[in-house]
Design a protein that fits this description.
Layout lengths: L1 H25 L5 E5 L6 H17 L3 E5 L6 H9 L6 E6 H6 L11 H4 E16 L7 H10 L5 E4 L5 H13 L4 E4 L3 H9 L5 E5 H10 L3 E5 L25 E9 L4 H16 L1 H9 L3 E5 L1 H22 L5
Parallel strand pairs: 1-2, 1-3, 5-6, 5-7
Antiparallel strand pairs: 3-9, 4-7, 4-8, 4-9, 4-10
Helix pairs in contact: 2-10
């Protein structure tokens, strides 16, 4: 009897191992969805489509980019958290949804550490304060005008609680000026409003706004980086202009729903890292003025922890609250 039980157990184990090996061999067997929690046309969308092209080559399956904008990234991020953890849905993780909103909104339907598994870090881009040319030529002129006309000037961002919005709020506090925030559902709409002179200023990712700076349609006043950008050597950093604690960037990563099978997750990590470190992808990011930051899952997990601690501290010290 014991021999018979042992035989049955052995057969069952072999069947399980065979099925597991088969499922791992077949993955991916059909297209993978890459959720972008923002509307088409912005930095996140551009990066996601470049990643998708690389992953299609690496994995041999189509990568379907699905834009789910709204809620400053919360809607698309929540959808990814609820997706089946089978490797067929991944998320373009972003600063706002993964590091800022958790400290501003108590009713989020996802918890970053609980609901997501790290894949790879991709890149980051600083923000730049731009204005319509008729508003000001320098950061000093803008501040002087804002103080002389309190409550009359305004600035736009791509959404509430996005890093550009928070950069604007920090700037208002440090400059001690009263300028009104006007949020839009995505950075392309905010940019259109500035060009149409419906708003006076805009905090925007440098990569998205660079063509308009070069064409002279908008004027760059200051950049939220540690050093001046080689692409905008004449534009001072906020620190140079007298405003500290305004080093502020939007970063991008790939994450998967927690519970994704280890073998599947490891394959996604391996192939995504290959894309992030590839010469073609790094050159593409450079052409978009986005700093490559390829890093594996352990480094991404550590980075997420550091960013959450940093934003919690920044938001508390600045007393920024967003309903």
């Amino acid at each position: 009897m014991r021999r018979l039980q042992f035989l049955f157990i052995s057969i069952a184990a072999l069947v399980f191992q065979s099925e597991l090996a088969c499922s791992q061999t077949l993955y991916p067997a059909h297209p993978i969805t890459l959720i972008v929690p923002f509307v088409p046309g912005g930095s996140a969308d551009v990066i996601a489509r470049a990643v998708a092209r690389g992953l299609e080559t690496e994995l041999g399956q189509p990568i379907v980019v699905e834009n789910r904008g709204g809620g400053s990234g919360a809607i698309g991020t929540a959808a990814a958290a609820k997706a089946a953890p089978d490797g067929y849905t991944i998320l373009l993780g972003h600063t706002t949804a993964l590091a800022v909103l958790p400290h501003l909104r108590a009713n989020l339907s996802y918890v970053v550490r609980r609901d997501f598994a790290p894949i790879t870090l991709l890149g980051a881009t600083p923000h730049v304060l731009v204005v319509h040319p008729s508003v000001a030529r320098t950061i000093g002129e803008f501040v002087k005008r804002a103080k002389a006309e309190p409550g009359t000037l305004n600035y736009a961002s791509g959404g509430i609680a996005t890093p550009p919005h928070l950069a604007g709020e920090l700037f208002k506090q440090q400059a001690q000026v009263d300028i009104v925030h006007i949020p839009f559902n995505g950075s392309p709409q905010a940019t259109t409003a500035l060009l149409g002179r419906h708003v006076d200023a805009l905090f925007q990712n440098i990569d998205s706004i660079m063509p308009l700076i070069k064409s002279g349609e908008v004027t760059a006043l200051a950049i939220s980086a540690e050093n001046r950008s080689p692409y905008l050597p004449d534009v001072p950093t906020f620190e140079e202009a007298g405003f500290s604690d305004l080093v502020n960037k939007s970063w991008f990563s790939l994450v998967a729903p927690s519970g994704t099978p280890p073998a599947v997750l490891e394959l996604l990590q391996e192939k995504s890292r290959a894309v992030a470190e590839s010469k073609a992808f790094r050159e593409f990011l450079g052409s978009q003025i986005i700093e490559p930051m390829p890093a594996g899952p352990e480094a991404l997990l550590s980075f997420l922890n550091e960013e959450n601690q940093r934003w919690a501290r920044v938001l508390k010290n600045a007393a920024i609250k967003v309903e």
